[in-house]
Each structure stands twice: as C-alpha cells, then as structure tokens.
Design goal:
pantothenate biosynthesis; cytoplasm; Pyrv_kinase-like_dom_sf; eight-stranded parallel barrel; globular; binds 3-methyl-2-oxobutanoic acid; metal-binding
Amino acid sequence: MSQPSAVSRPVTVPEFRAAKGRAEKLTVVTAYDCTAAKLVDAAGVDAILVGDSLGTVVQGHPNTLPVTLAQMVYHTSLVVRGTARALVVADLPFLTYQVSPRQAVKNAGKLLKQGGAAAVKMEGGERTAEAIAACVRADVPVMGHVGLTPQSVNRFGGFKVQRDAEHILADARAIEQAGAFALVIECVPSDLAARITAAVSIPTIGIGAGPHCDGQVLVYHDLLGLFDGFRPKFVKRYAELGEATRAAVRAYCAEVRKGTFPGPEHEFK
Ligand code: KIV
C-alpha cells in the first residue's frame, strides 16, 4: 500500500484485502505496547499485529501457550492507543477459540470491544474454519495463519519448517472459504508459499515463507535486534538495538559511578 500522507487515517480491512496481488507488498510488524506502536505506525506499516509472540519476547516463556486472553486485551489496548494509521490485528491466544465457534466469537469480541482491535488472527486451517466463519458472520474480521502455527508446538514437536504441501494448501483454501480477509503463512518452503498465494484470493503475509507472498510480517524484537533467545534463519535484523541498549546503559552506569552525570546542565538551580 502507498506511504502514509500528511493526514493519516486508519487503514481499513477492505483496503488491506484489496492490496492482494499489487506490486507493492503489504508490511506488517508486531507491537505490544504504546511506545512501540507509535514508532512502528509513524514508520508507515500497513498493519500492526499484537501477536501472542508476546509470550516469548515480552514475558520470557519458551512458547506462546501461557498467554491469556486478558493479557492480549490489555496489550491490544496499549497498541491501539499508540496507533493512528495502521490496521491493528490481535491474536486470539491458545484455547480461546478452538473449543467452539461460540467461544471464538465471544473471545474475538473482547479483542474488538475491550482491546480496540480492528480484526483478530487465528491459527489453523480446516479445523478452525467454522470458528472463522462464525466470527465473520458476527462482523469480526479474521486473519488466518497456516504452516508453522506456534500454538501447535507440542503436536509438531518443536518449531520446524512445515512441508506437507497438500495439507497446508487445503488449510489455506478453507480459511479463504470461511471468509478471512488475509492469511499469514509461517515457515514453509518458498515454492509452497507461492502456490498458496496464487491459489487464494486474499493477501498472504509471509514469515519464513520466502519472497512470493503479498506481504511480510516480522516480530518487532527480531527486526530491531532486541531478542537473543533464538534467531531463526528467516529473521533479518534491521538494527542492533539490543547491543545499543547495553552500550547506553553501560555508559550511564560509568558516568554515575565517576560522578560526571548529572552534569550542571541537568541541575535545577
Ligand atoms: O504471534 C505472532 O507474532 C505471530 C507472527 C509471528 C505472525 O503470529
């Protein structure tokens, strides 16, 4: 989508969906708080994903399973407060939509009504299609997520590239049929992502899925070099803010210890 103009207005779900197949790819970055959302939004991303990846990069868990709906509502409300233009999409966390379509609608509704998100994201394909359709009928826009779905980590036996092409393609088609407006494809071979992108009428947003998707998403902490827990092959760091932060705090400690901070310019006379 085109760069934000001086007067920004929110990107809408229909606008995001209509970007399918355009030469200019869609850009999505995660954020979990107001400050990060302001920075990412001002940089001109099309959508901000309040990902349940906050379980790993914010909360320090080994995976996303412990994240609760209340935490997602809270972090979504922080992000919405810092966002003027980007479409805010919030993840439904583990076991808040898998039980029944009714549960999915009720919990997705909380992310919109209390969190202020414009849309929700759900993992899974054929098995999630009914829940997606129920949300869409209730006017809750849904982004799907196929391939390596992190909430399935125990079934997959780890975070592994997913290669079952026919199954993943069927999942993508089921999500499209259920009425989702976009689809994240995570950690699949590039040629499979290209096949899915050609097969569905909704934009595909890749992460570890090669260059042929309609857009890309990266986790904020990965993009900025803030997270050292693990570094998947698909991550490109556009800054080394982890190292810059350590250096800044080391410099502050050294100046306080030497007595050179605070200086006269920081004093009230
Ligand atoms: O939770 C998340 O941040 C995600 C992205 C990695 C797509 O689902």
